Structures are given as C-alpha cells and as structure tokens.
Automatic annotation (TrEMBL):
Pfam families: Acyl_transf_3
Domain Acyltransferase: 26-370
Key word Transmembrane helix present: yes
Xref: InterPro entries: Acyl_transf_3_dom (IPR002656)
Regions crossing the membrane: 46-67, 87-104, 150-169, 181-201, 213-229, 241-258, 273-292, 313-335, 355-376
Keywords, comma-separated and alphabetical: Membrane, Transmembrane, Transmembrane helix
Signal peptide feature range: none
Basic and acidic residues: bias regions: 1-12
Region named Disordered: 1-20
UniProt-recorded name of the protein: Membrane protein
GO MF annotations, alphabetized: acyltransferase activity, transferring groups other than amino-acyl groups
C-alpha cells in the first residue's frame, strides 16, 4: 500500500521510507517519457535550446537516484545486482550487434594493429566501467551506404549507461554520506566537475578514458544525489520557500557561465559542449521539478489520454535510448534512395532535405528496433517477454466512471 503524501512529508530521513509496493507515480513516469522524447529530438535536430528547455540527462539521473534510494531499504548487494541485471542484458545485445557489424565492415581485431588489445577491450562491452571499444573511422560503410565513422554515431548513448553503472555501484556509499553530510555530499560532484574543467582540462588528452568517465560521473552526480535526497525526505525539511528561491539563481549562474564561453559567432552556444554550465543548469532545473513533485497514482484527466504512450516508453526506456540513434542513422540512406526517384527529385526536394522527414522515417525504424530487441528488458526484469507492452484499458472503466 502506498504511503500518503501527507504522511511521507512527516517521515524522518533516517531510516528511509519503505518502498512502495503498489501503483506507480505517474509524474515520474511522465518526466522519464519527456526526457526520452527530448533526447530523440535533440539527436535528430541538434537544436541548441532543447537541453535548456528540458535537461533530460539531469532529470533521468535524478529519477534513477530516487528509485535507487527507495530500493536501498533492502540489502545493498542484492539491489546492485538487480540494477545491473536490468541494465546490462539490453546493452549486451546492442553490443553484440554493433561489434558484429563493425567486424563485417572491416573493423575487426587487426584493424588497429593491436589485435590482443582489441580483444581485451571487449570486456568493457560486458561491464562498461569505461567506454566500450568501437571503430572511430576506417570502416567501409557497407558499400558506401553509411559514413566510415558510423560506429561513432551508434555508440553515442553508451556514456549514459557507463555513468549509470558507476552511480549504481557507489550509491550505498553516497547514501551514507548524504545522511551524514547532506550539503557537502550534494555539492561534491559539482565541485569536482568545476575543478576538472578549470584546472585540469588538458588531462582529457593524457588520460582520455579516465577523464571521460570521471567527468561524466561528476557532471550529473549532484542530480543523482538530489534525487536521493528527495526520496530520503531531506528536501521536505527545508522551508517551502527556500528551494524555489535558490534553484532559479543556480540556473542563472549556469546560463551566465554558458554565455561567457568562447564560441563560434556564426553558431549559438550549445550547453552540452560545456560540462560546468550543463551541471549547474541541470541541478537548478531538477531542484525545481523535485520541489513541485506531485504524486499521481492516477493520471489527471487532461493527461489520461497519454497513459499508453508514457507507459510504453517507460517499459522500453533502455531500448529506446540505446537504439534511437541507430534508427536515425539508418533513416539517412533510406532517404538517399528517394533522390533516384524522379517524382521526389523534381517535386519534393524540400522534403528530402528536411530534418522533419528524417524524424518521420526514423520513428518507425525505432519502433521496429524496439519491437525486435525490447523484449530483452522483460527478460532482464524477470517478466514474461512481450513484443508490445502497451497497457490495456481496464474492463468496465468507462461504465464505472459514468
């Protein structure tokens, strides 16, 4: 039975509130679905303002941190094992397909002159403590249908899984630190990303793997910990006017830092290119979302029509995130074939060059990929595999509502 919101606000931070055993928080489901949609749109259009409008990565890590904390009311080792079981099988399937395609396209063990090291690095496809290996260039593009660096595009989402893995592994320690030193624990990742990108920025060339892993972890670490603090009830102890007063100032600081960066005058500044700005902006934005944080066991009437899509995206969140770039990459050669059709060439050039058309072709491809591979998420979660986990409308609901 779910604990009423009024009672949750009165619970102490230690011990943590018991895990919810029934129902779903529709608000959190909605945020996760919006984050996934925003990621797909950004990777298709590249609009610089999208990460400002909705910083998906910070939101997703905060939600994951909150859920992880709820689970840590059980023994930590079992919780970590369960999280890894849900995360890794979809990535293993994705990795098996990507690595196989690279080998078929000329990116095998002898492609970089170090076959032994190539095989050794495949271990990062099993446990992504660092970036899994991929061919950055030199592939044949399957007869010229794809760019030679197509693998670099496909593995773009993997950084999220790598950072998520480290958060999961370190969550028991972070939770203990949060309960004892809440403010210091919350600010530590933010301080790390500032120090790294101000004083040691040149080290990304010297130690690229270590730098990349540490920087991504620190960039959204405060968001993860803020989600933990929300679940612990620590934010409820703060006077209600404090968080909505401070969070906008934090966002202003992140935006100010972004505007002071050296940029190409012909292009707008993209916050995703500047870790400090992204970390600060995301922290302030997430703090506002968590402050609002209504608890929806049922959808509000205006949003009920979106229940099916939101539930589907949540059920296949890892698959959508892993495969959406692949769908967009595959859409390009399919559209290129239409240039050979006289009607499209003579009358619809505007359509073939439109990014909206790429998205229009990419969405069915993504649906197909999720249909083919999404069932792995069910197996990983020890559920009955389903090809299309769209929720059914309960029988008699309309009659009872009337």
């Amino acid at each position: 039975m779910r604990i009423p919101e009024q009672l949750r606000r009165e619970l102490p931070a230690d011990p943590p509130p018991p895990a919810r055993t029934g129902g779903r928080d529709r608000y959190l489901d909605l945020l996760r679905a919006l984050a996934l949609v925003r990621v797909v749109l950004y990777h298709n259009f590249g609009w610089f303002w999208l990460p400002l409008l909705f910083p998906s990565m910070g939101v997703m890590f905060a939600l994951a941190g909150s859920l992880m904390t709820r689970s840590l009311s059980r023994p930590a080792l079992g919780v970590i094992r369960g999280r890894l079981r849900r995360l890794l099988p979809p990535m293993w399937l994705f990795g098996a397909i990507v690595v196989t395609l690279q080998v078929l396209d000329g990116g095998g063990p002898h492609s970089d002159g170090h076959p032994t090291w190539w095989w050794a690095k495949l271990a990062f496809w099993v446990l992504p403590l660092s970036t899994p290996p991929y061919a950055t260039d030199g592939l044949h593009g399957f007869g010229g249908h794809l760019e030679s660096g197509w693998a670099t595009q496909l593995v773009v989402p993997l950084w999220y899984l790598r950072a998520y893995l480290w958060y999961v592994l370190l969550s028991p320690l972070m939770l203990k630190a949060l309960r004892r030193f809440p403010v210091l624990t919350l600010c530590t990742p933010l301080a790390i990303v500032i120090v790294m990108n101000v004083f040691f920025v040149d080290q990304d060339v010297v130690y690229p793997r270590v730098w990349e892993t540490a920087n991504d972890f620190a960039m959204f670490g405060s968001c993860w910990i803020l989600g933990m603090a929300h679940q612990e009830g620590l934010l409820r102890k703060i006077p209600q006017y404090v968080l909505p007063s401070i969070a906008p100032l934090v966002m202003v600081a992140g935006f100010w830092y972004l505007q002071t960066r050296p940029v190409d005058p012909t292009q707008p500044t993209d916050i995703e290119a500047w870790p400090i700005a992204q970390a600060v902006w995301s922290l302030g934005f997430v703090a506002m979302l968590l402050h609002i944080s209504p608890s929806w066991e049922q959808w509000p009437a205006p949003l009920e029509r979106w229940n099916g899509l939101v539930s589907l995206l949540n059920s296949r969140a890892v698959s959508v995130y892993l495969w959406h770039v692949t769908a967009l990459v595959l859409a390009v050669p399919l559209i290129d074939r239409l240039w050979d059709v006289d009607f499209f060439f003579q009358h619809l050039k505007w359509l073939l060059t439109s990014q909206w058309f790429t998205l229009l072709v990419g969405i069915p491809l993504l649906a197909l990929l999720v249909l083919l591979f999404g069932w792995v998420e069910d197996v990983a979660a020890k559920r009955r595999p389903r090809l299309f986990p769209y929720p059914r409308r309960p029988r008699g609901r309309r009659r009872s509502a009337a």
